[in-house]
Amino acid sequence: MSDTNEYPVKKVSIICAKGAIEDVYAALVMGNGAVMEGIECNLFFTFFGLDAIMKKRMDKLHTAVLGNPALRLPGGARMPSWMGVIPGMEAMVSGMMKKGMEELDIPPVSEFIELFVAGGGNLYACKLAVDMFKVKKEDFSEHVKDIITIGEFYERAGGEGSHIIFT
């Protein structure tokens, strides 16, 4: 097997459509990893993923508890999804997840976005979702480059060595 990649990844465009901590961090970790490797990267936030780039919500995201059969708590223990109906469980699990991330020196969403943009990454909001939820440009982090249509997203996502990832 060769040590060189015959078809290197040159650009990655990541779509984040969910606003749960685990979904947003998946997009941010992959995006930051890309820019750190010198790969051009676009993060496109749509539907509930818009929470990740909204100033008032970005650092207040929660973990999806109910209906998440693979939920593992920091330390590895599994939590039955039916426990999500218990009042306060989502807040407790979200707090545990945030504490676990802090212990690993994983920054809050707002800081992670700053690192991504400082590394050369681009943040975009989906025009359809923005219109549907009646969100305004001023509701978003100043790091959001633009509000674009899906057609404009595909224009930015194209090219040799390009990949699209949906989280």
What does this structure look like?
With 167 residues, the protein is of the alpha/beta class. The protein has 2 domains: 11-59 and 109-166, DsrEFH-like (Hypothetical Protein Ychn, Chain: A, 3-Layer(aba) Sandwich), CATH 3.40.1260; 65-107, no CATH class. It contains 5 helices and 5 strands, in the order E-H-E-H-H-E-H-E-H-E. The protein has helices at 21-36, 89-103, 109-118, 127-132, 150-157, and strands spanning 11-16, 40-45, 122-126, 144-148, 162-166. Strands 4-3-2-1-5 form a 5-stranded parallel sheet. Strand 3, helix 4 and strand 4 (144-148) form a beta-alpha-beta unit. The radius of gyration is 17 Å and the shape is globular. The two termini are 30 Å apart. The mean pLDDT is 91.
